[in-house]
Amino acid sequence: MxxxxxxxxxxxxxxxxxxxxxxxRVLGVRHHSDPERTRVVIxxxxxxxxxxxxxxxxxxLIIEVLGCDLQPEAPRQLGDGRIRRIRLNNLxxxxxxxxxxxxxxxxxxxxxxxxxxxxxxxxxxxxxxxPQAADxxxxxxQGEAYVVVIDAGHGGRDPGxxxxxxxxxxxxxxxxxxxxxxxxxLYDGLRVVLTRxxxxxxxxxxxxxxxxxxxxxxxxxxxxxxxxxRRAQGAEVFFLxxxxxTDQAASELADRENAAMLVGIDEGQSNDSDLMSILMDLxxxxxxxxxxxxxxxxxxxxxxEGHVAGRSVKQASFAVLRTLAMPSILVEAGFLSNPQEAxxxxxxxxxxxxxxxxAHAVAQYLQQYGEKKTPVRALAAQTHTVRSGETLWTLARxxxxxxxxxxxxxxxxxxxxxVGQRLVVP
Length: 426
Fold this sequence. Notes:
By secondary structure, the chain is an alpha/beta fold. It is built from eleven helices and 20 strands.
């Protein structure tokens, strides 16, 4: 679907020459193949409009850069399983790059601006083959477990925000993701996929590919926030907005997170045509409604924890949400620019509470709105006998649950425990 839409949507009115009137020229054509895609990059001396379209018999992609010329050369043989060869043609008032494909493939195209070390670039990714009518995806089995994809933002060379210097966003996000996964392991009828389980850099495209390969039913992306004021606090939960952000702050936050994903060329896959491909899908409106339901449940659980006060559910156009045809939310767990909140989110207790809150929201969503026949239910309850020095917070961390859940399961009116007391662990 992405490829078919690009035929109509990829024409970009970027201008055929620079403000100085310099003629557009192709500086070179590069390509790189990996297990997920073949990327073709066209380097230009100035920004220029471009068009990408697919053609059949034989299958090929045709990229034309308007008002531009290139130096023709002999066809390049690739043979990487997606592209057989690349051909360069100089046509009147445009330069043409033809990708001869092995079969019909989905693709995406986008432009990247010039920078200190990079020229203006037109990028085309050739992705998975388009399923033929006789070779669709196998239908899900009745009783198949739900798949929950948890995406810890940033990682590796991309630390995210450092707020006031107390905590680093990539570490906070990973800690919460792991705690959410551990809490979800206490439920039957679902399984969890982490896009990263340690401190490594994972490109936006790979995060999306992981969610798609695992055939995820829900996608939960975890980040932490920052603001100029140290008084800003509280969690916010976002879902995709096709109409733009709820407010200026949401818009600026989405811009900031999207920019973080554009570190180097590997992350430059953010493209409004991806959003259009979802909205053109008949399931698009239902996905947005379900994303809003999940966002509301998540914020409600965070508010019930009481330690990180909830703020609101908002809409914004985050790049990582725009290419996923499944209910998806992005959670800003709190403000690392607030010293008190940063300390809390850096702590094992804070990460356990936030992870448990998100797990409970996911379980509630699947129990109430899940479309499969598989029941999602907590595993058989276990009991714990309180020992000296133990508190509700240490027990919540040990059993990957929350203080709220422990109090509710045991009808506790206070947080005080006594040695020898037997507790039901939800």
